[in-house]
Amino acid sequence: MRAKITYFITAAVLVVYFVLVGSRGLMLIQHGTWLTVTFGVAVLILPVIGVWFLWQNTRFVTRANHLATELEAEGGLPVDELERDAYGRILRDSADEVFARRKAETEDAPGDWRSWFRLAVAYHDARDTPRARKAMQRAIALHEKKPVQV
User: Which of 1, 29, 85, 111 is the most exposed place for a label (fewest CB within 10 A)?
Assistant: First the structure.
């Protein structure tokens, strides 16, 4: 729940920032000289890119949460079996062990979105965020029956 609140607060702050930057860009364009118009257009590009990026991430998180909800209803969410240190951080050897099992499971059933979801969680636990994101994107694509790039 804390992650959702943090995400929404961050998104709200970004939206406010985009509005402020966009208004400055419009003010520059309204000034009317070729230099201010050029800068104004350049400044307006930043919020457009930011809004697109925020939208894509929000869609990704929403879809991943939908898969988690569906997997939870089936009783297929991965169980937290990771060993932790005194501060609550996941021990690397434990994460690697669980990752090896999840990878083998995914290799046995490469077309199953559930195994890709669990592999994404294992990647995340092993602190490999880029691969976790790619595995989750693959799980989403398989769930939505979209073509998957190899």
Answer: 1
- pLDDT tens digits along 86-122: 898 888 888 888 899 999 999 999 999 999 999 999 9
Alpha carbon distance 25, 15 (integer Å): 15
Max CA pair span of the chain: 63
Instruction: Please name every residue paired with 90 in a beta bridge, in sequence order, or none if there are none.
Output: 84
Structure tokens at 115: 């195994």
Taking each helix axis as running N to C, give the angle between helix 92-108 and helix 113-125, from 0 to 180 degrees, rounded to the nearest 10: 160
How far is it, in rounded angstroms, from Cα 82 to Cα 114? Answer: 19
Query: What is the identity of the amino acid at 47?
Result: P
Amino acid at 84: R
Count how many residues are written for the chain: 150
Cβ partners under 8 Å of residue 45, min gap 6 = none
Question: Token digits for 18?
Answer: 């985009």
pTM (predicted TM-score)? 0.80
